[in-house]
Amino acid sequence: MDLKRWIHVLAVADRRSFVRAAEQVHLSQPALTRSIQAAEAELGLLLFERGPQEVTATPAGKFVIERARQLVFNSRCLERDVTLYRNRGLGDAAFGVGPIPAATFLPPLLADLRREHPGVNLRVEISNWELLVKRLLEEDIEFFVADMRDLPANPLLHIEPLREEPGGFYVRRGHPLARRRSVPIREVWQHGVVTVRLPQGVRTLLSRLLDAEPGAPLPLALECDNLHVLRTVAMHSESVLASPHAAVVDDVASGTLKKLVVPELPAVAAHIGTITLRGRTPSPMARLILERLAA
């Protein structure tokens, strides 16, 4: 079957509407309908149930769609790799980064890449893991790097552990808690904690230490995916910053920030990993970045 027809089948499966799918593939609705009917006739299978509200895949359709998706995916990868081979270049790359890698080891990596490969264009999306998974599944990015503990059990995702980033609580110089040898966690929370989105396991641990009601949300003064913003807030307020140490190591060394000793708190760390689409061959530039990350 012609590859374009498989693309039409996937568009209907994803959009669950002939109208929306036709817009996606830039065809009129009648033309798309004829393409799907021709595919069903060629296969001898009914692929879709045409309901009054939406179109749904039949059992046979689900069987075919799963394999068609891999076929179209591989075709796109082949086109990209042939273009790169013909041009003898690394090619551009787009990838995602969670807030913790973005504030720790990403900036020096990007600086190295720009210095070594000035002709390559990179696009980096910094966000939380939920949005990055969506971008990856849409093939808008080739991979992402983030805390991997809350990632869903999705057979399409390949997760490779990378490193741990230890963290803790930090306050500005002159903060009321900065003079204390140790601080109970309840007092930490009284000043308002600012942090990135925390994994569920860490939230559960902190809620238990704070004797919060079961199921009650962890009270956070400010939750933001940008650690630079959080650091600025902590520098100019009484807020307590929860952060990986690598993101504030220079501030701690200069005395601008001080790490709090919280006796009840066990050692905590972000578990960083790289997440790719299973079965996808990375572009040469993406492969280079993944190798650098692993090293």
Name given to the CATH homologous superfamily of the largest domain: Periplasmic binding protein-like II
Radius of gyration: 24 Å
Number of strands: 11
Number of helices: 12
How would you briefly describe this protein structure?
It is built from twelve helices and eleven strands. It has helices spanning 3-15, 18-25, 29-43, 59-87, 99-103, 106-116, 129-137, 185-190, 200-209, 227-235, 245-254, 284-294, and strands spanning 48-50, 55-57, 93-97, 122-126, 143-147, 157-172, 193-195, 222-223, 240-244, 257-259, 268-277.
Describe the structure.
This protein is α/β, with parallel strands linked by helices. The chain has 3 domains: 3-87, Winged helix-like DNA-binding domain superfamily/Winged helix DNA-binding domain (Arc Repressor Mutant, subunit A), CATH 1.10.10; 93-163 and 272-294, Periplasmic binding protein-like II (D-Maltodextrin-Binding Protein, domain 2), CATH 3.40.190.10; 165-269, 3-Layer(aba) Sandwich (D-Maltodextrin-Binding Protein, domain 2). It is 46% helix and 20% strand. It contains 12 helices and 11 strands. The strands form 2 sheets. Strands 3, 4, 5, 6, 7, 8, 9, 10 and 11 form a 9-stranded mixed beta sheet that branches. A two-stranded antiparallel ribbon has the order 1-2. Helix 1 (3-15) packs across helix 4 (59-87). It starts with a helix and ends with a helix. The mean pLDDT is 89.
